[in-house]
Write a structure and sequence with these properties.
about 130 residues, 3-stranded antiparallel beta sheet, 9 strands
């Protein structure tokens, strides 16, 4: 069996971070949390709606309960999952509730992605 991913998970009240090397693509699924996918440069992630084709993103947000498939084979990526009932989750829901799967503006999260990538690269503590 091929691993679906190799990395680390950090949990906190209202959310979690999965960070590491993506493996095999997922099938269609949905989850209660809002998903923010941040591939490390120069990587990209791909998402698919059940009725659509694959689309590529430099950073993306998947709304809570939105069916999707995910693919970022052999890419280093940070996945942030935010509970929609949390303060941050409510704000994300208000901003992206009609998007389903939304491209996040290129470059907006560049410093944050660089910080996550550097921390992962040096095996920083939680």
């Amino acid at each position: 069996m091929k691993p679906s991913a190799i990395g680390r998970i950090l949990l906190w009240r209202g959310g979690s971070l999965w960070i590491g090397l993506a493996g095999e693509p997922t099938g269609f699924h949905a989850h209660h949390a809002v998903q923010i996918s941040l591939p490390f440069p120069p990587g990209r992630v791909r998402f698919q709606h059940p009725s659509g084709s694959w689309a590529s993103y430099t950073a993306a947000l998947v709304a809570a309960h939105q069916p999707h498939a995910f693919e970022a084979r052999a890419q280093l990526v940070a996945q942030i999952f935010v509970e929609p009932e949390s303060r941050d989750g409510r704000q994300l829901h208000l901003r992206y509730r009609n998007e389903g799967i939304a491209a996040l503006p290129p470059g907006t999260l560049k410093p944050e992605i660089a910080t996550l990538a550097a921390a992962y690269g040096r095996r920083a503590s939680d």
